[in-house]
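Two entries, shown back to back:
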Amino acid sequence: MLPPIIPLSAAPVTSQHDPVKPPPTIPPVVPTQPTSSDGTIDLKNHRDPEEQALLLRDEQRRQQKRRKQAEGDRYEAVPGEELNADNTVPVAPMGERTRQGLLVDIEV
C-alpha cells in the first residue's frame, strides 16, 4: 500500500528547507563592560584619582582640627575651690556633688 500523498504546501519545514539568511548588518548587542572603579563622571572638575585622594585626606585633616578646636573650647577646665580626684588640680564642681562613698540605708 502506498503512503498518503501530502501536498507540497503542507510539507513540514525543516532546517534543510529554510532559505539562507544573509548575516545581519548590525552587530549584536553585548552586555555592558565594567568601567573604572569610579562610576561617576564629573565633567567640570576632572582630576587624577591620586590627587583627589590627597585633597580628600587634607580636607579630612582640616575637619578633624576644627572638631578638636571646637571640643577644646567647649570643655575648658574652670579653676575652682575643690581639688580633683588626685588632689592635684583645683577644679569647679559640675552640677551636683558626687555620691561616691556615701552610705545609704535600704530596707527591703
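entry 2 starts here
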Amino acid sequence: MLRDSRALRSLELSVFMKNSSSPKINQLALMDTFARIVETGSFTDAARQLNSSQPTVSRQLQILEAHLGVPLINRTTHGMDVTETGRRYYEYVRYLINDLMDFEELVRSEKNIAHGVLRVSAPSGFEKNIITQISARYLEACPRVTLEWQTNENPVRFYENAIDCAISTSAPESFNAVFETIGYVKRFIVATPEFIERQSGNFAQSDHIAAPPWIACSPHYRNEIELFGKDGKAIDIKINPICTVDHPIAAKKLAKSHIGIALLPELMICDALESGELIRIFPDFEGCPIPLNIIYKEGSQNLAKMKEFISIAKRIIHDMITPID
C-alpha cells in the first residue's frame, strides 16, 4: 500500500511537470534550487551545494518566480529576505522533495542500505542528553545518512515542519502519523548544594515540601503541585512560588542560580545530577511521569534509515531513563 501511494504521488508529480504551462523548465530542479537558497541563506552557498554558479542559481530562481507569477525572495543590498509566500512555498517544496527522496530510498532499501537525509525534532532542553548519544550511535551504524535535528516545542506536523520523525512528549497532530511510547520520564525535585546549605529546613519529609522558595513552571504547575510517594499515593501541595516561568529550561537555569527548588524532567537534568550541580531533594516524592513518544509518518518505518533510527532511539532512551516502579 505504501509503495502504491508513493508511486502515485511520484506519478502525479511527473504529470504535473509535463502539463506545466512552461513545459521547457525542469520544475523539480528549480524547486530544489529554491530550497537550497532558503536553507543556506545564500545564493553562493546554494550554488556550491549544487555544484553550480551563483549567476545560474540566481537565474533559476528568477525562472521559478516568473513561472509562479509571485516573488519568493526579496534581494537587498544587505542580503535576502524570504517572502511570506516564499515561506509557504518552501514548506511545500521541502515536503515534496523529502517525499520523493523517501520513495526512492524505499526502492533502494530493498538492499537494506540506509542513506539520504533524516530530519528529526526533539523537545527543547532534552537535546544535550538525547541528541548527542543518539547521533553518535546512529551515524556510526548509518554512515551514509545525514542527520538533521530541530529542537522546539512545536506540535508534530510533518508537512509544516518538514520533518521525518519526532521524539516528543505530546501526541501527533498529523492524521497519517504513528507513535510509540518509548517510556515515561520521571520528574524530580532538585536544587543546588549551595542553595541547600543556605536553608535550615528539612528536605526529606512531605510536610516541608511547601516551605522552600519554589520556581514554578507553568503550565505544568503553578500554585499547586501533585506529587507521588513511594507507595504510589498522590498528594497535592500548595506552594507560593517566588518566580514563575513558562518552560522547564528557564526553571532549570533559575534552579542552578541557587534561588529556589524546581520539579524538572529527569532527561533534562541527568547531566546536572551526575555532575553534582543539582541534587535531588525530597527523594521519596516525584512528579507525575511524562510519556515520551517517537512519532513517524505511517509506513516510513519500512525505510532502512528510519527503521535503524527507531531501534537506536528506543535502546538509548530506555538506558537513560529510570524505570517506573
